[in-house]
Design goal:
The protein is of the alpha+beta class. The chain has helices at about 55-75, 85-105, 110-125, 140-145, 155-160, 180-185, 200-210, 235-245, 250-260, and strands at about 5-10, 20-25, 30-40, 130-135, 150, 170-175, 195-200, 215-220, 225-230. It has two domains: about 5-40 and about 135-260, D-Maltodextrin-Binding Protein, domain 2; about 50-125, no CATH class. α1 (about 55-75) crosses α2. This is Putative ionotropic glutamate receptor, metazoa. It holds the Pfam family Lig_chan.
């Protein structure tokens, strides 16, 4: 700070730095969070045809199906000679009579609405994209020894090592926010499982890439962004008042939020 009158940017207010510079009031709240890839897990599943109905309903349907056939066999096998055939044929008859309730005349009231509801639910699951984060917890990443990215020349590296206990060998420095996309890409052999950075920076990235990535996990609170000045600079109080005036203007802050930080 001997060469400059001020540092203006996404400067995090940190206690260690306050020994050498004076910070203004924070102009933005901040915190450390994590972004990961999203995955469309349901549409890629081979068992998606079972998803429209719950497990309990599938089991109930199966039990009712078998019970109906058994009751028919119990009532008919003494009088009907067709029910006195070999065991395999009797078993086929049991299931045939149960199945007939779905396709013959008496199914006109029950079958159509059942088929309609099932088809509508399945079509909805196939057409509506349901994205899930690849990871939801940093501890899962740590247990598996996956690599994690962070913004180079920031306090994030020390925070990850000292407070979140990441192995330094698993940390990958990234120079700029646009580098996040390449670092998280599946085709990159040096890809990272997640990127931890300050929330405003992550929101700027998600503003343009929200369809592929999402923010997950807890947000670790920091003291926010501020402007830095040489110790005992008279400009600190002046800039702090200016920041206070802007942050108290709800309309202006909403405009800034929607323009730069809101994402889908």
């Amino acid at each position: 700070m001997q060469k400059y009158d001020a540092v203006v940017g996404d400067t995090t207010i940190i206690a260690d730095c306050s020994l050498y510079v004076d910070f203004t009031l924070p102009y933005s709240e901040s915190g450390v969070s994590m972004i990961v890839l999203t995955e469309d897990s349901e549409r890629n599943s081979l068992w998606i045809f079972l998803k429209p109905l719950s497990l309990d309903l599938w089991l109930t349907t199966g039990v009712a199906f078998i019970f109906t056939g058994f009751v028919i066999w119990l009532l008919e096998h003494r009088e009907n000679t067709e029910f006195r055939s070999p065991a395999q044929q009797q078993l086929g008859m049991i299931f045939w009579f149960s199945f007939s309730t779905l396709v013959f005349a008496h199914s006109k009231f029950s079958c159509p609405w059942q088929a309609f509801l099932y088809t509508a639910r399945l079509a909805s699951m196939l057409t509506v994209q349901k994205l899930q984060p690849a990871f939801t917890d940093r501890k899962e990443i740590q247990r598996n020894g996956y690599k994690v990215g962070y913004q180079n020349s920031s306090f994030i590296k020390g925070f990850l090592v000292e407070h979140l206990h990441f192995a330094e060998a698993n940390l990958v420095p990234l120079v700029t926010i646009p580098d996040y996309h390449e670092a998280l890409s599946r085709g990159n052999k040096n890809r990272v499982a997640a990127i931890l950075d300050e929330v405003p920076c992550l929101k700027l990235f998600l503003k343009k890439n929200c369809s592929k990535y999402t923010m997950v996990g807890p947000t670790y609170k920091t003291d926010g962004f501020g402007f830095a000045f040489p110790s005992r600079s008279s400009l600190v109080s002046y800039m702090s008042r200016a920041i206070f005036n802007v942050t108290q203007d709800k309309n202006e802050m909403d405009k800034i939020q929607s323009t730069y930080f809101d994402y889908c």
